[in-house]
Amino acid sequence: MFEAAFLQESLATLEGVYPLVASFLTHRIAEHPLLGLEALKKLAARMRPDTLEHNAAVDLPLGISNAETPQNGLSVHETIDRIEECGSWVLLKYIEQDPAYRDLMHGVLGEIAPIVARRTGAMMRFEGFIFISSPRAVTPLHFDPEYNILFQARGSKTMTLFPTADPDIVTPEFFEAYFAGGPRNLPWCDEWQARARAISIGPGEAIYVPILAPHWVQTHDEVSISLSLTWRSEWSFHHADACRFNRRLRRVGLSPAAPRLYPANNRMKSYGHRALARLGR
Description:
The protein is an alpha+beta fold. 31% of the residues lie in helices and 24% in strands.
């Protein structure tokens, strides 16, 4: 049985920044046996094939589209076996499908649940992801619709983050397309680098990543293993549905205002989308 994942100092840090500001944290699960490479090979063999992703990941443009991301010619299991030299990236999605990893995820997130509840309400839709990456692997610029803490277990990486929902980087139309089923990778512009904040982490270190904050990632000179634990809130679901409502308005020739950011809410547009969706069904 492992001790608590977070020291009180990191819990205090998270309380001070959540939910709007990215932050460096520390943790105590880097040596957890479930996060070793051999354990992850066994996990990948147990997981549903549709929850495994892999691709070539070295020298990728930061603004590459999802459709242009190159394959590496290997199976996902071959990629993990050759991760030190194949220049690739493997993603194990929804690790909560495995009971042992689900218990780990719920234990860690349970430690921060009181902090989250005081700001954005009860934590909803827990999901877990594990990244196994070759040296110098790149994850292109994208955003996530969840709150996220990225825990580093092996190797090191740098995440470069941008302001939450920066309208120059993520336009309202891009959000609307994403929440209608579109891709999440974003185009890149060199001018945006002036707005960036880079946070580097190694084993025992973590990053709190605010919801909707654009970011890209590069591993350093060794194999990297990271655990990403995410959750949603009622606010996040209202924001997503407000984007879908705006897409409906734009299709009839209107120019709706972008959904408002926390702590403002988007309930009226959200309820409008949900009502129209029910009518459509």
